[in-house]
Amino acid sequence: MNILHVQYVFYARKHKPGKTFEHFLTDVTNLCKSCSFQAEHEILRDKIVLGCSDRGTQRRLLVKGDVMLDCAIEKLRLEEITRIQAAHVQSSSQAEVDGVDRSTATKSHKQGSLVTSPSSQ
Fold first, then answer.
1. Residue 112: what are its φ and ψ, rounded to 5°?
2. In this structure, what DSSP letter does residue 116 have?
3. Is the dihedral of CA 13, 28, 36, 2 positive or negative?
4. Distance of alpha carbon 114 from its chain centroid, rounded?
5. Looking at per-residue confidence, does 77 or 1 come out higher?
6. Nearest to 44 by CA among 60, 54, 32
7. In angstroms, what CA-CA distances link 80 with 52, 84, 107, 108, 121?
8. What letter would DSSP give residue 118?
9. In the prediction, which pLDDT does 63 show?
10. DSSP state, residue 41
11. What would the pLDDT profile of 32-49 be if each residue is shown by its tens digit?
């Protein structure tokens, strides 16, 4: 095993769009174990913070400074869950609004066809 190549693969790994944070975390954790680092927790923490795709959470973690690995993992998991739930709520709300708009338009159209205007009498 070429340790320099294994470490290169670890450092090059990024959180890919469309992949969950859990997938990224598992991937870099397994790579980290293969690297024989002395300060595994710190290096893993740095990798998940610097390599995550969530720029907002990344910025907040960087502002905090010396964040523990467990705290960084918890924050990134929570942000991903919250983002997914918010997208679900927003898509559900939009579907309800679209349904109301369609039903209102249908009722208005039906009522308009039943009502005769004074000029047509």
1. -65, -35
2. P
3. negative
4. 49
5. 77
6. 32
7. 11, 6, 41, 42, 62
8. G
9. 94
10. H
11. 999 999 999 999 999 999
> Longest C-alpha distance within the chain, in Å?
92
- Among 1, 10, 21, smallest CA distance to 43 is for 10
Query: Residue 76 in contact with residue 57, Cβ under 8 Å?
Result: yes
**Residue pointed to by tokens 């942000």:** 79
Question: Are the C-beta atoms of 33 and 47 separated by less than 8 Å?
Answer: no
R_g over Cα of the chain = 26
Flag whether the pTM goes above 0.85: no
Lowest mean pLDDT among 11-15, 58-62, 63-67, 112-116: 112-116
Query: Packing angle between helix 40-51 and helix 21-34, nearest 10 degrees?
Result: 140
